[in-house]
Design goal:
Strand content: under 5%
Distance between the termini: 34 Å
Oligomer: single chain
Helix content: 55-70%
Length: about 200
């Protein structure tokens, strides 16, 4: 009886590890928002919750998140190299799905009052993106569906956006344009997607 209990414990641990591994990988088709949410229905529910809370459209938040991390849960900026060989410091403290820095994450935790959130948890990360973009929307009077301008504030900060630091940054302007294009494509895909709200909780 004891041997049987140990065997089932091992099976349960192995299954949990396999599920965790699957959940940590990016979706198999990151180019189609409908396919993403069919594969990860928990992501869909989390995104809709963040949209309702922060009034930022789901396609905008998802396009920003893709640009930041390509949906890699533990993404970090690459390390610089010392003497071109030795791995050295990272360019910033950005981490997780949303590439939130330590400072921005601390502001988010303080503002929302929930200290148990994690940057490598999708639901927490999408809520952070919604929170940040909502602040830009309210303080800078940027339309909630203007993915181009909202991404500029996300990357350059609201102060940097107001000062126009992005105007001479071709890389950032191109990145914002790609976010806007993806947001538009995601919106079209999501509008024609069927059955997401009927899928049960144990899928995805």
């Amino acid at each position: 009886m004891r041997r049987e209990s140990v065997r089932w414990t091992f099976v349960a641990v192995l299954a949990a590890a396999m599920l965790a591994g699957c959940a940590s990988r990016p979706p198999s088709n990151s180019e189609n928002l409908c396919e993403i949410f069919k594969e990860r229905t928990r992501w869909y529910r989390a995104a809709k919750t963040a949209e309702k809370r922060w009034q930022i459209p789901t396609p905008v938040m998802m396009a920003v998140m893709y640009k930041e991390s390509s949906y890699v849960a533990n993404a970090r900026p690459p390390r610089s190299r010392l003497l071109w060989i030795i791995p050295w410091k990272r360019s910033s403290s950005a981490y997780g799905f949303a590439q939130a820095t330590d400072a921005a994450w601390s502001d988010y935790l303080r503002d929302t009052g929930n200290r148990s959130r994690d940057r490598d948890d999708f639901a927490d990360a999408i809520d952070f993106v919604g929170w940040y973009l909502n602040r830009s929307h309210r303080r800078l009077h940027i339309a909630a569906d203007d993915a181009h301008a909202l991404y500029l504030t996300y990357y350059a900060g609201m102060g940097g956006y107001e000062r126009g630091t992005w105007r001479n940054n071709d890389w950032l302007k191109n990145a914002a344009a790609r976010v806007a294009n993806r947001s538009s494509r995601y919106a079209r895909q999501l509008s024609s997607c069927r059955g997401l709200d009927r899928r049960r909780w144990w899928f995805g």
